[in-house]
Amino acid sequence: MDSNESSTGQKLKVLHVSPEMAPLSKVGGLADVADSLPRALRYAGVDARVVTPAYGGVLDRVHDLGWNLSDTRKMLRIAMNWEVFTARIWKASSGDHVIYLLEQEELFSDKSIYRENLDLKGLLPFAFLSLAALELTRTLPFSPDVIHLHDWGTSLTSTAMKWHPYFSGFAGKFKTVFTIHNLAHQGLIPPDFLQPLGLHKAFHINGLEFYGMANLVKGAIIDSDAITTVSPTYSHEIQSPDAGMGLDGLIRSHSWKLRGILNGLDMDYWDPSTDPALEINFDSSSLSLRKDFQDTFIGESGLDDSPGPLIGSVGRLYLQKGMDIMIPAIRPLIHEGFRFIFLGSGDPYFEGELMQLSREFPGRIRVTLGYDESLAHKIYGSSDMFIMPSLFEPCGLSQLIALRYGAVPIVRETGGLSDTIVDVHGDPEGYGYLFHDYSSHAIIQTCLRALADFHDPSKWENIVLKGMKKDFSWNNSAMEYVKLYRHITGLAGHETG
Ligand code: ADP
Questions:
Q1: Rounded to whole angstroms, how far apart are CA atoms 403 and 386?
Q2: Residues near 469 by Cβ (< 8 Å), separated by ≥ 6?
Q3: Is the CB of residue 344 below 6 angstroms from any atom belonging to ligand 1?
């Protein structure tokens, strides 16, 4: 019997619901997880599939990637806001990775995925995806044991199974898992948006009601069969007022069904020895090639050729990422000989401050605003150090990518950063630098600690190599999810891993 067949001889079947999935659509780490977790589950013997929107250009992207794309010839019809919205279901596959893409031009035309203001128009795409996930199980010959929901944008699935006049008919057909990738985004809406969604009955204290607003994440916490967060530390942090974002009390009272499972990395995609974005490939046995790549990249990017270390940063430029303490630390660190390369977009204030610094110190700091997948890979592959001074970090994938690409992480001790990085000075097996205080001073002190080690080439090489050899693949974490699915469904199986 296959390792993940149940006692009835059937594979465990899981449908992942996500508003973004790499490499078809991506804003942040959720997209990476929506692609790599189902792949890892497949590898572990689970029939894991994904449903996600076909935003403009996504079907072409599938084609460009050389994936299979077929029209299932099935349509989904969802009544919302006194209208019937119809989507065509496409089936994309890459190897045995199966993705259902919902083509709905009116709802899924906005490539930016998330809007600044969650008005009713902005909510409808997420409501549609959440409800379509249920309807899909009736439309296609795929009947999951578990529906796995990712973040606030899909949280209405479990709410609808309880409170919607039609979708409550799905109750009992499968179990639901709700993963909190970032509790800062809760889907707060005025209660009168619920009526057009058929969910007005959910507005009360044991439902979505939250200080007079409707809170979509609150509903999923109450109504899902299991809740997970993307690192063990974050699962504890969100139970305290500091990181609970107003939901800590509710989460504490549901902690019996909460688990923290660390995100993994897709080790095939993030592999510096084969990465097509790097002009020179390397691995831990060929660090001199990494140096060659770094020299080429620094030359092309217009940064000064100097003996000081290059610090990289790839990510959203928001307060969560510690930009308010990062920016004041840059000037003093440049004077200490550091160079910087930033890629990201976000808060216009932080974007402006970074651009100002790049004008003030051309050659010492290069800033690219926007999203650039290829440049991100080059930054991971060429930086000596990679900085993440996050205020909070549910898991963080960038530090894991940096490790694999030989850039030594300098991170604040919070959430998944604490779970994944071990300090060089606290442990002989350490491969990064951690700081606790949320301050520019702590960033500067920690970078100076790293600088002292950087100037000792054999010590530094040792640190780089330890990081590159760490295994942050999905192997262990995917098995944690398999155990969770089995636990909530009661379906038996044998562990592999
Ligand atoms: P978050 O999900 O909070 O944004 P993570 O560290 O979990 O942060 O994941 C970020 C992912 O998004 C990484 O794969 C990172 O390389 C990628 N990324 C973030 N910003 C950009 C950007 N501007 N260009 C390219 N990739 C980016």
A1: 9
A2: 284
A3: yes
